[in-house]
Amino acid sequence: MSFLGQHNHVALTTEADVLQSLGAATVASSAVAVSATNETAPLDANEMTRQHCWPKFFSNHGQQYPAHATRGAAIHQKLVQMLLTDSLASAPTEIGN
């Protein structure tokens, strides 16, 4: 028995497909966000800007975003793969019942 307990392998496969579609949409959105972040013009170097940490904060965030998005996509893909693997592993048991 899988860690998910009794379940319908068709339902798991369907949900994995839905999650896969959501993941693809998220990756596409992240690609757009990365390009938009990289194309953002720097703030004016006036006195107020130099006295505050906001420009550095947003610059660091923009530089870290691609790595976080890539890590999130990899975790998402592992979840989808786990659901598909569990679904296929439980299919013979479900058919036998």
From TrEMBL:
Coiled coil: none annotated. Residues 11-89 form the PE domain. SUPFAM superfamilies: PE/PPE dimer-like. InterPro entries: PE-PGRS_N (IPR000084), PPE_sf (IPR038332). This is PE family protein. It comes from Mycobacterium uberis.
